[in-house]
Specification:
Number of helices: 8
Shape: globular
Structural class: alpha/beta
Radius of gyration: 17 Å
Strand content: 15-25%
Number of strands: 8
């Protein structure tokens, strides 16, 4: 059974998005890239949803180097990340390779860094790379921004605004085993 959305909101500010998601009279979910949400709606895995709060207009897609951190906006897509010079060079290209292995180009054009970090899928090569690189997640809850190590992230109360990666030199390597180069890895 396919779920039908009855409401769509596109807030202009983080505070407006938080206020919409906090409403008690409606069940609204955040919409980032939509790769997971749309799939769940199509399969009927999500029920009793009134609508979505589209996060595209919040300006959360920038990727920038700031001091010893790489700050990746939550709405940055995997394709944007793959093409970013700073992200591509991180850990000898580990983050770029993990993003490329996450799915086909259409998926990478829509999937967001913040969405994949918050989803924490057990079979996500990209999520594993974020963990290996000691990523932290910035969450805005309407009052302040909290930064939490990704390894300690539980249910998110607020909105993920960025993923932060330390730029310290790392040693080691990465391996990937899959049936084909485009399949999800069996081991990563």
């Amino acid at each position: 059974m396919v779920a039908t959305l009855r409401e769509y909101y596109r807030p202009a500010t983080l505070d407006e998005a938080i206020a919409l998601l906090a409403r008690r009279d409606r069940r609204l979910l955040p919409l980032a890239g939509g790769t997971t949400l749309i799939g769940q709606l199509e399969t009927g895995a999500l029920r009793d949803i009134d609508g979505v709060v589209d996060l595209q207009g919040l300006g959360l897609e920038a990727i920038r180097r700031e001091g010893d951190l790489l700050r990746i906006g939550a709405m940055a897509t995997l394709s944007t990340l793959i093409n970013d010079e700073n992200a591509g060079a991180l850990a000898n290209g580990l983050l770029r390779r993990a993003a490329q292995g996450e799915g086909p180009v259409n998926f990478r054009n829509a999937a967001t860094v913040g969405g994949l970090a918050a989803l924490a899928a057990y079979d996500s090569e990209f999520y594993a790379a974020l963990l290996a690189l000691d990523a932290s997640v910035a969450i805005y809850n309407g009052r302040r921004t909290l930064t939490v190590p990704l390894a300690q992230l539980g249910p998110v109360e607020g909105l993920v605004t960025e993923v932060q990666l330390p730029l310290a030199e790392r040693r080691g390597g990465a391996a990937r085993v899959a049936r084909t180069p485009s399949d999800r890895p069996i081991v990563a």
